[in-house]
Amino acid sequence: MIANPNTFYLSPTEYLEWEGKQLIKHEYINGQIYAMTGGTLNHASISLNIASVLKSHLRQKGCRVYMADAKLGISPQGNFFYPDVIVTCDPRDKKERLIIYDPCIIIEVLSPSTEAFDRGDKFKDYRQVDTLKEYVLIDAQKINIEVFHLNNNGFWELHPYQETDVFSLECIDFFCPVALIYEDIEFTE
């Protein structure tokens, strides 16, 4: 989640050096840094649920699943984000120690304060990643999953899923009941 931006400009190199010394995470967008705020327990549980089922599915398949502490770089020149979950099957990312550059799937768990950004400008940045095949938005306030899939013609198609559906991630041949992603989640009225 993004809090208030700092008012000074940093180059990508300066940001990476500076951020490595900070106690909290910061995203880097067009030279500005944004402190990451904490999320809700539902947000954390949903992130863990999806990461767990993906990790189990991808075991021994050459892919890796990362959670919120993994930094995603749109390019070495920036921008840099901390998605809730990242899946990479690209051998180049196996050599990285700090930043993922070649994911096939990016997952964001939506919160009211960041939903518009996750759907808009952040997705616009994510679409610049050549290896990205699927972008997943998971609602933390009600049961709703949206999967944006890059089709063979280079267009992003939306596939919405509700409580009784089985959703899929085509690029990793993954199928999962939506209810499993929302396991142990309590919604307030």
From TrEMBL:
Q: Which residues form a coiled coil?
A: none
Under InterPro entries, the record lists: Nuclease_put_TT1808, Restrct_endonuc-II-like, Uma2
Q: Where is the Putative restriction endonuclease domain?
A: 13-172
Q: Name one Pfam family in it.
A: Uma2
Domain of life, per UniProt, equals Bacteria
Which CDD domains does this chain map to?
A: DUF820-like (cd06260)
Q: What's the protein here called? A: Putative restriction endonuclease domain-containing protein
List the lineage, top down.
Answer: Bacteria, Bacillati, Cyanobacteriota, Cyanophyceae, Oscillatoriophycideae
